TrEMBL record:
Span of domain Thioredoxin: 331-481
Stretches assigned to coiled coil: none
GO BP term, example: response to stress
Name of the molecule in the record: Peroxiredoxin
Gene3D superfamilies: Glutaredoxin (3.40.30.10), Tetratricopeptide repeat domain (1.25.40.10)
Positions of TPR repeats: 222-255
GO molecular function, one term: antioxidant activity
Superkingdom of origin organism: Bacteria
Keywords: TPR repeat
A Pfam match: AhpC-TSA
């Protein structure tokens, strides 16, 4: 079942009394499900199961199911789930299971369309006030199928039914990108503008009105702006592109890095070469070496020749290495790495103990985690540069998967993308604490990477991701080479 309860509560402006009581109950037991022993977790699970015999509301069942999951007792969820679904056949739990097991797994647009019609007939939105986001997820999924089929009119008509303005960009943007990849700029452009305008609206709200929804919506500004402006640039509408970008940089200066590529192209095209050159130099100095052809062009234009370029280029790379070294100092730590023994895709056991004498790169990820996936080309390049180094081992720890068929999904994902990764499944619970490996390493969010030295000590810990392949290669090299050296404190 999807973890819908707490996700929904995150964005709900107000809670019904019953829901608030159940959320309070979930928080009440936080010390146990976060840090309790196996005995404490088992005891609480038994108490909850016993209590459930007297439940009157669906919220009570939902909270207990979430608690059982948090306690690591997924095995006890199915019987309780079955009881709740029988009691409330047209309730949220039954609906959410239908969406997860039927709609989201439907193969092909016809099946997904049929499932959506079942959804709105048996569980109409009017019966679930405040659950607009749940139905927007379904509409987004259906619209994506139409777009994949090349049916832009149906995709757009489906998107227009979405009700949560703060979230609709998450439906519009993927559809727009699919249409763009098929060469359909005409239908993609207004979708991108909608996402851009929505994000701009939330970004420019008065500070006292910026809630979680506003902050969430504003995250789509740079990606939609970049795609929209790139269309203008390709159409030769450089002045219009510049106006949009420079307005964006005024209201959201934190988006500067994400807009740099379309910004410098627009500046170049409108003759503002020095400004474009300065942006390009910064991009190159951050590891975006793919911009070098344009950097060379502007260097020659502004200097009258290529004389001195090699020294200039070397200086930028030296600055980048220094920046990376300064940055990784902030990630430095020194503590024993928790032991682990997990199975790889072939069913073979891989343990920390078996890798002693090697520098290990651990990368915690999940198939649903877009930042994780975005960094994989860079991680693949980083692994490739150590392909012949027997003292270095990359391990990709698959964790926090939401689907019961996660193993099949993981294999499919790795094979589809032809990633030569050693993947381990993080589904073995510690005999004492009941924790999976991610919890033992205190992973709070993914992607999360750990660099472990030859003696089994964690030397670096970093989170977040970048799509910049060259930067990741250089950063990983600095981390690994540093971890190869004896710890000096």
């Amino acid at each position: 079942m999807k973890k819908t309860l707490l996700i929904a509560l995150t964005f709900t402006a107000g809670l019904a009394y019953g829901q608030q009581q159940e959320l309070d109950k979930f928080q009440q037991y936080r010390p146990i499900w976060e840090e309790g022993t196996i005995a404490q977790k088992d005891s609480l699970a038994a108490v909850l199961i016993a209590e459930s015999k007297n439940y009157k509301t669906e919220d009570e069942y939902s909270t207990t199911l979430n608690l059982l999951r948090a306690l690591g007792h997924e095995d006890k969820m199915a019987p309780l789930e079955t009881i709740a679904m029988k009691k409330f056949p047209k309730g949220r739990l039954t609906r959410d299971v239908f969406m997860q097991e039927v709609m989201y797994k439907a193969e092909g647009t016809t099946e997904k369309e049929k499932a959506y019609q079942q959804l709105i007939k048996k569980w109409p939105l009017k019966n679930f006030p405040g659950d607009e986001l749940t139905y927007d997820y379904a509409l987004s999924s259906l619209a994506g199928s139409y777009a994949t089929d090349g049916n832009a009119p149906k995709a757009i008509a489906t998107l227009e039914q979405m009700q949560e303005r703060f979230w609709r960009g998450n439906g519009y943007l993927p559809v727009a990108n699919r249409l763009l990849s098929a060469g359909d700029t005409t239908n993609a452009t207004p979708l991108l503008k909608t996402v851009m305008d929505d994000a701009y609206y939330y970004i420019t709200l008065p500070e006292e009105q910026k809630d979680n929804k506003a902050r969430f919506a504003s995250m789509g500004y740079a990606s939609s702006m970049s795609a929209y402006v790139n269309i203008l640039v390709n159409q030769g509408k450089y002045t219009e592109a510049l106006e949009l970008i420079e307005n964006a940089l005024q209201v959201a200066p934190e988006q500067a890095d994400a807009l740099s590529n379309v910004y410098y192209k627009s500046l170049m095209a409108t003759g503002r070469k020095l400004e474009a050159y300065n942006i390009l130099a910064k991009l190159y100095a951050k590891g975006q070496f793919n911009v070098e052809p344009d950097l060379k062009t502007l260097y020659a234009d502004l200097n009258g020749s290529m004389q001195g370029y090699q020294g200039f280029n070397a200086g930028l790379k030296e600055d980048l290495v220094k920046s990376i070294r300064d940055h990784i100092k902030e990630m430095a730590t020194f503590k024993p790495a928790p032991a682990f023994e997990l199975l790889n895709l072939k069913g073979e056991k891989v343990s920390l103990a078996s890798l002693k004498g090697k520098v290990i790169v651990l990368d915690f990820w999940a198939t649903w985690c877009q930042p994780c996936i975005r960094s994989f080309p860079g991680m693949q390049a980083a692994q490739a540069q150590y392909a012949d180094d027997k003292e270095v081992q990359f391990l990709f720890i698959n964790t926090w998967e939401r689907d019961k068929d996660y193993k099949k999904n993981v294999v499919s994902f790795i094979e589809k993308n032809n990633y030569p990764f050693e993947v381990l499944y993080d589904d073995q619970k510690d005999a004492v604490t009941g924790q999976v490996m991610a919890a033992k390493y205190d992973v709070q969010g993914i992607p999360a990477k750990f660099i472990i030295d030859k003696e089994g000590n964690i030397r670096y810990f970093l989170t977040g991701s970048s799509p910049n392949v060259d930067y990741i290669k250089m950063e990983m090299k600095e981390l690994i080479e540093s971890a190869k050296k004896p710890y000096k404190g």
